[in-house]
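Step 1: inspect the first sequence and its tokens.
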Amino acid sequence: MDAINSVFCTIVPPHVLDKLAQAENPALSESARRTLEADAARRTRRQLVMARTAAAPDGERAEKATGKPHRTIHDCEHRTALPGTKVRDEGGDPGQDATVNRAYSGLGATFELLLTAYGRDSLDGAGLPLIASVHYDKKYGNAFWDGEQMVFGDGDGEIFLDFTLPVDVIGHELAHGLTQYTANLSYYGQPGALNESVSDVFGSLVKQYTLDQTAEQADWLIGAGLLAPGVTGVALRSMKAPGTAYDDDVLGKDPQPATMDDFVRTGRDNGGVHINSGIPNHAFYLLAIQLGGKAWEKAGQIWFDVLTGGELAIDASFADFAKLTVKAARARFGDGTELEAVTKAWSTVGVPTA
């Protein structure tokens, strides 16, 4: 296996925090600046650490596979040293801290979806332990996967609430680990946007699986319930209607495009990875709605097949990914409804599959 791109991936994009850091209200700006500084330090630290996740031989990792989750939750107690104090281990009873309990449940829901729907034992397919830390830093407005574990902030209470509240945020960040162990997509430009989109897709599927929803019943929002009551918005992103998740005086307007006609060219946010992910997000939504039923069963299976199939290059473009979804749909379902729906979904967002 090639060296793993052990990247630092956050749920809240830098452009959102940049906007908040310019707010006139010091309670908002100071929290945003603190979060940006913490993210920058953690990102730099991550780049200096070798990806230990690639060190164990496949045989050794396979021996660890159990078909059961191994979760450990730590409490940072508002400090930044990871992982913090262990407060709940696998099989432990729920405690008084709702944040700890939500993190534990969210890790389990993600594990269950991967195992039940796709036969995959944890993120690496070999029983990788799932580690999370809660109560990170003071008023930290983000959640992230750092290449080895999950970390959740409590939010500032003014813009962002507790980051364990939406289960899709937990699923999103863990899916970065899934990508890390499979397609290993780089984190810049279109492959970076695909990396973010894959996390949104599986984050949404974790939520839908947990709620036992069909594609039609799902809200297709990422981070619903994360924004504080005073914010004009419903979530961080919308897969159904990219660009409509929020439009707030302080937070700004959701910049995500839904089609290639509005593709954003920028050097910020690693080439717009959190922005242009709206395009493949919308393609997946269109496919899931067209196929109907439980989105993880067909649409999700096609995405999973591409992610784990070994043909997706680390620098894949949207078109590269789209072509492989067509190939995967044909291989699994034949030349029928699924294949037609995949082709139509990508065509609608302006990404070629031929």
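Step 2: inspect the second sequence and its tokens, then contrast the two.
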Amino acid sequence: MSPRLRRALGSALLALAACATLTPPATAAGGGLPPGFVNLHEVDPTIRHDIRYFGRHNFVGDRIDGYQRPLCVLTRQAATALRTAQRALLRQGYTLKVYDCYRPQRAVDHFVRWAKDLADERMKPEFYPNVDKSRLFADGYIAEKSGHSRGSTLDVTLVKLPARPQRPYRPGEPLVPCFAPMGQRFPDNTVDMGTGYDCFDPLSHTDNPAITGPARVHRDLLRGTLIAAGFRNLAEEWWHFTLNNEPFPSTYFDFPLGRR
């Protein structure tokens, strides 16, 4: 091999090495998930999905940044633990339904921008009717970091089997407070939990004493089953659970939901 050809080949190899180094780990394997993450469907296809931030039925009223597909992505450990909880609930005639799982940091940033825009209150009548939007940060409803971005936190509820059909949300339809009686608020096909999902209100606190009857039974069943599977509940949100021994306790990821 001539010296000139050897130099040219060496330069080409260096360029390829540089490109490989600059490729983000999440895309290095043809657009797959980062190591340690899985799509929940692949671990347990029986768990239902209603990914609210992929659509417009959420407290912002728009699809949220980073939600390219309506997927539940979790760390493998969290997905496996959730499968354990699902198996216990199926034996009792229920199934889990997830509203949100891993949440990209860019989605959290979207929430923060929305919260600072005090003029945008399109979804207030349903999701935060009794909360002044200027108080969302101070009252802890919105923050600049979320445990969801670490990959082992999810928002989840119960559906009684056989599951009833659920109509789609129609943007612009009249909104009903999330704490209204179940027959009046948005017709989710879940069991009664006392409030709807993402309800910014003290009634969403898991142990709020005002929640009684079937809603109390359902909250306790959900919490007890997930605790037994290795999760802990956030006291302010009956739907919010985090794996106790999460594998990335200090890492906030930002890959978009949409990779296969």
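Step 3: confirm your contrast with the notes below.
The chain has a mean pLDDT of 90. The first helix runs from residue 3 to 22.
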